[in-house]
């Protein structure tokens, strides 16, 4: 969940419907807080109390330096590369940023590149760049072995899918065999969970699981004053466009890592804003699918009423190919069994150029109220206006819209998420096997709270009041919470459905709703300023999140100091309209081409 969306029920203004997507104004850093150009600290602290393995936290934050950036992943990359070079591998010199998955497949197909070489190139990039960004939490030690196996399979049988040999990072709340799945928490460093269903699908498609990406701990749901991109396991992830800036969250490392070309793709998760916000803030395409399009089995939950996984990518075609692999039903996830038999899953159309055109389509554009406009900087408003103009230039008709009942949607979501988190995380923890050391895993939210109190790092920067509130509040199956959830979902779906159906005939309908995804990211800080009013922007992620409808963000331009901080726009569509919504985003990307690579600037100014 994006930090801003989680904070919204505390805001005086209009709950979730009238709070920011980026935590603008909520955090401030001074020069003394951090030196983004400094190398990561060399000290390595054991992962925590006795019985918790150190491997997952090696090189991560310590009690003496809880805010540090970087883990042992760059050093691990160096070890893997040294072994590969000793075996004769020459690491190719590639400009990774502009390369799409289809372009990579073409190079591999004609013999100019191998999956092993591509994976090695990304490992080299992690070694060189991640000490400044801190996006990669841990590398899979078998990454190069997976790549060699992919090359062998291609030679013997051909490619299994367009993702054959493509390196992918996983947000560290997604199970991956052989690596801890921690949700950023030191309490779960012993959680050697098996592959999540979506990871099994990626492997079946031939993708290379490169490793785990850092995240905002517990999907930004532990505290109202948490900092996006920080976890007790991975420390602080930074925005590669300006290293003193917030990467948003909670899929922080997924966004920053792909933006900095540390992987071709990453898989994140979203409850409300946690894919689209870090994607937009890091200049990426981010896909929040319809609830039930992608299995959640093996993913650490926040609330199964809203949780979904989806890709973050530098290119819309890559996101489409990822969705092609991720889509599917799963008997262990009932939400995936609710899809209609005729749902369109032809994501390949987007790659082949046969996706929907902007020309002739009608889009609603979510307008800023005067109060919102007064709080948004002029440059961000100009980016949004330019995006609307670009859609019109491409032949689309734009209709101004406002979504109704967003105060009530946000209030209901805010009331329900805590009890649902306790229910769903207790169910997840209750199914964990003992650690490899034989120590017991935490089994309940109360166990996590107790662990954090005893741990030297977890509560060093902010507290866990969201945890304690969830543990002491009403249960998810209480009439109060069940009604709040049902009402919020009903109102969110009705708001989108009503706006999309503009008139009596099909020609009056809107193809999608366009909105501003984010405002410029704030400075990283650990100084809580919850008492100060935040900047005021509608939470464009919330309607789709609560409704369970698809939303795709795409780069639209730059704002902030010196215009170096990415801004995105979101396309939100009807339930199960995922292919067309992603297609509209891809068409906008082609028309505007707003993305430029990050330069790892120490500051935006």
TrEMBL record:
Ranges where the Amidase domain occurs: 118-582
Cross-referenced Pfam families: Amidase
Signal peptide residue numbers: 1-31
Gene3D superfamilies: Amidase signature (AS) domain
Assigned keywords, A-Z: Signal
Record's keyword annotation contains Plastid: no
InterPro entries: Amidase_dom, AS_sf
This protein's name: Amidase
Organism from which the protein derives: Quadrisphaera granulorum
């Amino acid at each position: 969940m994006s930090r801003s969306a989680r904070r919204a029920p505390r805001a005086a203004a209009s709950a979730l419907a009238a709070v920011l997507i980026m935590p603008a104004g909520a955090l401030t850093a001074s020069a003394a807080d951090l030196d983004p150009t400094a190398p990561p600290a060399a000290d390595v602290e054991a992962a925590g109390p006795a019985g918790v393995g150190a491997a997952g936290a090696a090189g991560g934050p310590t009690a003496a330096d809880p805010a540090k950036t970087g883990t042992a992943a760059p050093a691990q990359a160096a070890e893997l590369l040294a072994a590969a070079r000793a075996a004769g591998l020459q690491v190719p010199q590639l400009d990774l940023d502009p390369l799409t998955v289809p372009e990579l497949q073409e190079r591999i197909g004609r013999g100019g590149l191998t999956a092993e070489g591509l994976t090695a190139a990304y490992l080299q990039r992690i070694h060189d760049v991640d000490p400044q960004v801190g996006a990669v939490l841990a590398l899979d030690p078998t990454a190069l072995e997976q790549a060699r196996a992919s090359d062998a399979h291609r030679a013997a049988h051909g490619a299994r899918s367009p993702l054959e040999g493509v390196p992918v990072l996983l947000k560290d709340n997604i199970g991956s065999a052989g690596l801890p799945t921690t949700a950023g928490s030191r309490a779960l460093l012993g959680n050697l969970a098996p592959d999540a269903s979506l990871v099994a699908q990626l492997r079946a498609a031939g993708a290379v699981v490169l490793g785990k990406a850092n995240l905002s701990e517990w999907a930004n749901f532990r505290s109202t004053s948490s900092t996006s991109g920080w976890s007790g396991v991975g420390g602080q992830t930074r925005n590669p466009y300006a290293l003193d800036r917030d990467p948003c969250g909670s899929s922080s490392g997924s966004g920053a890592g792909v933006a900095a070309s540390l992987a071709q793709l990453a898989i994140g998760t979203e409850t409300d804003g946690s894919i689209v916000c870090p994607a937009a803030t890091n200049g990426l395409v981010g896909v929040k699918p319809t609830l039930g399009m992608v299995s959640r089995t093996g993913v650490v939950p926040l609330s199964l009423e809203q949780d979904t996984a989806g890709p973050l990518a530098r290119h819309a075609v890559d996101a489409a190919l990822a969705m092609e692999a991720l889509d599917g039903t799963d008997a262990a996830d009932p939400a995936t069994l609710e899809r209609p038999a005729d749902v369109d899953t032809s994501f390949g159309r987007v790659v082949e150029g046969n996706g929907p055109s902007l020309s002739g389509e009608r889009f609603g554009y979510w307008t800023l109220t005067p109060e919102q406009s007064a709080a948004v900087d002029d440059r961000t408003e100009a980016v949004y206006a330019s995006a609307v103009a670009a859609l019109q230039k491409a032949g689309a008709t734009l209709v101004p819209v406002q979504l109704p009942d967003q105060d009530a949607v946000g209030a209901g979501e805010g009331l329900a998420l805590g009890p649902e988190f306790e229910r769903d995380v207790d169910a997840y923890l209750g199914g964990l096997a003992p650690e490899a050391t034989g120590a017991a895993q935490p089994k309940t939210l109360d166990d996590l709270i107790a662990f954090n109190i005893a741990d030297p790092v977890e509560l060093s920067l902010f507290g866990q009041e969201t945890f304690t509130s969830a543990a002491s509040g009403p249960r998810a199956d209480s009439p109060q919470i069940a009604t709040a959830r049902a009402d919020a979902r009903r109102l969110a779906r009705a708001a989108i459905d009503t706006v999309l159906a503009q008139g009596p005939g099909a020609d009056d309908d809107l193809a999608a709703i366009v909105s501003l995804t984010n405002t410029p990211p704030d400075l990283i800080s650990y100084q809580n300023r919850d008492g100060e009013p935040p900047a005021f922007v509608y939470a464009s992620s919330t309607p789709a999140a609560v409704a369970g409808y698809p939303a795709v963000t795409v780069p639209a331009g730059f704002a902030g100091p010196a215009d170096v901080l990415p801004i995105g726009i979101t396309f939100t569509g009807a339930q199960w309209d995922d292919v067309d919504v992603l297609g509209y985003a891809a068409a906008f990307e082609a028309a505007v081409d707003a993305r430029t690579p990050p330069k790892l600037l120490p500051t935006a100014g």
